[in-house]
Amino acid sequence: MNPLPQDLSVDAAAALLLSGRLVAFPTETVYGLGADATNADAVLSIYETKGRPRFNPLIVHVADLAMAERLAEFSPLARALAARFWPGPLSIVVPLRTWHGLADIATAGLDTVALRMPDHPVALALLRATDRPLAAPSANPSGKLSPTTAEQVRRGFGGKVPVLDGGPCQAGVESTIVAVDGDSIVQLRAGALARQEIETAFGRTVSLAAQGAKISAPGMLLSHYAPNAAIRLDTAPQPGEAFLAFGQAPAFDGEMRNLSPSGDLREAARNLFTMLHELDATGAKMIAVAPVAETGLGEAINDRLRRAAAPRD
Ligand code: TXA
Ligand code: MG
Question: What UniProt keywords are attached to this protein's entry (predicted)?
Answer without folding.
Answer: ATP-binding, Cytoplasm, Nucleotide-binding, Nucleotidyltransferase, Transferase, tRNA processing
